[in-house]
Write the structure tokens for this entry.
Amino acid sequence: MDLATLHRLTVATWTRHVDAVRPDQWDQPTPCAEWDVRALVNHVVGEDRWTVPLMRGATITEVGDSLDGDLLGEQPVRSADSAADEAVSVVAEALPGGAKVHLSYGDEEPGEYVSQLAADHLVHAWDLAAAIGADRTLDPALVEEVGAWFADREDLYRSGGAIAERVEGGEDAQSRMLGSFGRSAAWTAR
């Protein structure tokens, strides 16, 4: 699967769950212990908002703190959908050009950055589904793509503190992928 398609499909998985959040669920806990549903959605909206300037060649310094704080406002679903649409468009537009992306740790190939974004959307889609009681089943093709990409990066991410300790167990590919990102497929809010 090409990267633009992978990104688009993982973002669609994410927005499907955002669109299902009921008004009384924004303060629900998530598998990300430090975030409730609203904070989780705000995090991913932040990723999507950063995608546009970064894919167009901006640096972290140039963007500055313009994307800090609450990015959801009074209409969080609309804000999330809008940010996702813009991110998908810029990836489709800029990825083929191959220009370096300027990230906090240095310059990166755009394909690697887009792979990071796809993984973030897919894993956080599962987090959100778990938090709001939706179907947690992820598309097996997306799980396979993200899992294969992440296999060579897991130790690096863990040593950098970007993910929790591996959760062992799980007999299916989705559970194994989630475990590699430090999630238990059996997580519940209670």
Summary: The beta strands are 101-103, 106-108.
